[in-house]
Amino acid sequence: MREATADKLHIFIIMLLISLIMSIQAPIFTPYAAMIGASSILIGIMFSAAQLANLIGNLIAGPLVDRFGKRLFITLPLLVSGSLFIFHGLVANTAELLLLPVLNGFSLAFLIPAAMALLSGYAANSQQQGKNMAVIGILGTIASIIAQLIGGKLGVMVGYANSYFVIGAALIITSVYTMFFLKDRQAVTVNRRNQSLGLIQVLANPGLHVVFLTGFAVMYIHGVIIYEIPYLSVEKGLSTVTTGKMFSFMAIGTFFSLSLFFINHFSPVKRLIFGLFGS
Q1: Cα 147 to Cα 18: distance, rounded to the nearest angstrom
Q2: Structural domains counted in the chain
Q3: Per residue in 124-171, pLDDT tens?
Q4: CATH number reported for the structural domain that contains residue 128 in this entry
Q5: C-alpha span between 246 and 207 (Å, rounded)
Q6: pTM check: above 0.90
Q7: Does residue 58 surpass a pLDDT of 80?
Q8: Cα–chain-centroid distance for residue 272?
Q9: How far apart are CA 2 and CA 274, in angstroms?
Q10: Range of the domain at 214
């Protein structure tokens, strides 16, 4: 029991480090791409291509994670992503900069599903699983608040290219940490006949259409903000420190929302509508 608790703690530490390190680049990427010579359209394409690659990776991650183990698909993507971030600081043109986020998005697509699947193995029931997910959400939000400020100041202090060297090295160190402290664990599942649904059946479920639409709207809004805030800062001549502060304020708002524990007493539909209109 004590060993399982220690193993779960390592997962929380790793997820915190990943969220912290990955969020550092948020205020840096757009001004760095603009400095390399990328136009606003090309920067948007970079973001879109990276997300598309991430989506494709997510679709194929599940079977591979189940077949080869979760630990491998946490350690290896961290190592690959760290190397790709280091290459970010070495790019000479926009074509190279376009390729790297695509490769990075694809490699990281295996990381989160593997980490979540591994964490689910430490939950005896759905209540514990929900608690673990809540902890991950809070840790990720806290990391975002801190990381945006770090990223903004790092870009000013050492420059954009050197910032990517720091991010890449930090991810590689995290990968080494997983090699020594992370243990694979099989989730305990209960098989039920006739309960398995394919992708087509899930997409065809009328009751889930509003969920898909809401998820798309939220991610669309989030994507626009992630793109527009740094680019607006570049156009206004603001430093990455200012961009980092703006992103940190957004993360503080997210953390505040997560702290409203009484909100579960309201209807999920009402919460969704309020959140969408608030956005």
Answers
A1: 11
A2: 1
A3: 776 777 778 778 878 888 888 888 888 888 888 999 999 999 999 999
A4: 1.20.1250.20
A5: 37
A6: no
A7: yes
A8: 21
A9: 42
A10: 2-186+199-278
